Amino acid sequence: MNWKGVFPAVTTKFHADGSLDMDLFFKNIDFQLESGVHGIILGGTLGESSVLSQEEKITLTKETVDYVAGKVPVILNIAEGATQDALFWAAKAKELGASGLMMLPPMRYSADGREVVTYFKTVADSTDLPIMIYNNPVDYKTLVTIEMFAELTECENIQAIKESTRDISNVTRMINRFGDRYQLLCGVDTLAMEELLMGAVGWVAGLVCAFPKETVTIFNLVNEGKIEEAREIYRWFLPLLELDIHPKLVQYIKLAETHCGIGSEHVRAPRLTLIGEERERIEKIIKEGIAKRPKL
Fold first, then answer.
1. Given 119, 134, 140, 182, which residue is catalytic?
2. Active-site hit among 13, 162, 213, 254
3. What domain range is 92 assigned to?
4. Which residues contact 55 (CB under 8 A, 6 or more apart)?
5. 46 within domain boundaries
6. Which domain of life is it from (predicted)?
7. Is 204 a member of any domain?
8. φ and ψ at 209, to 5 degrees?
């Protein structure tokens, strides 16, 4: 598994009646692929996985794998409260043809270090799919510590880390401890260029859902050592990237996708579409970003 590159955590598209809108979903996927993304991640926070039925997750995974047809890896996120459910999805992902897994610590129960490590090891030992651990203590309240990652080194298929601690120095800390044992991918849009400069090899991105060309261009320029060119685009991008670090990131990013012609605002309850002052404020950011969009 090559974890290097831009991996969109894609949104799930719905019709007004709440059913899956696969046509619009694939329209967005086409734009992602044409822009040069390096993989697709399904079932994350942006994908509204918590409000999808088991059947819908299976449909979304199977149809995406079939549609992408090996052009890039398709990664399924596992965010479950029970180990048996995580094991089910690891096996189902393999059956449906997914290329790898992204895994959060156990949901809803605040597991201690021993429990988190056991959870990850149990799932890793059950599959040969490569795994990326999603370390996001800010939103999900469980920190996967360096000591815990040291215990996980024995699981060869745990290969990558989505680094979302909000601590840029953690990239250096991890590299100092583990070298290249783990591939580090930035999981916070507003820190992406900084973490790429410090040694992260990938970007699990949110605003890429609406602005894939700009996201991929920043990644490529950093990797080519063209820092000034990347910085200029990144500075333009930052007000938009900040939409990714809000509890309503799903609504914000779906509104951006809509303005870019590659998505819709439809969300699943309890989420509601934006109204009033909040909507006006977010639309202003999006419209200004589009108006000042850099020529690539």
1. 134
2. 162
3. 5-291
4. none
5. yes
6. Bacteria
7. yes
8. -60, -30
Residue 225 lies in a domain: yes
Would you call 134 a catalytic residue per the annotation?
Answer: yes
Measure CA 183 to chain center. 15
The answer to whether 121 is a known catalytic residue is no
Which tokens belong to 168?
A: 């840029």
pLDDT in single tens digits along all 296 residues of the chain: 999 999 999 999 999 999 999 999 999 999 999 999 999 999 999 999 999 999 999 999 999 999 999 999 999 999 999 999 999 999 999 999 999 999 999 998 999 999 999 999 999 999 999 999 999 999 999 999 999 999 999 999 999 999 999 999 999 999 999 999 999 999 999 999 999 999 999 999 999 999 999 999 999 999 999 999 999 999 999 999 999 999 999 999 999 999 999 999 999 999 999 999 999 999 999 999 999 999 99
Indicate the number of domains in the chain: 1
Distance CA 54, CA 77 (A): 13
- Residue 274 within a domain: yes
* CATH number for the domain that contains residue 140: 3.20.20.70
| Residue 204 known to bind ligand | yes
Cβ pair 247, 200 in contact under 8 A: no
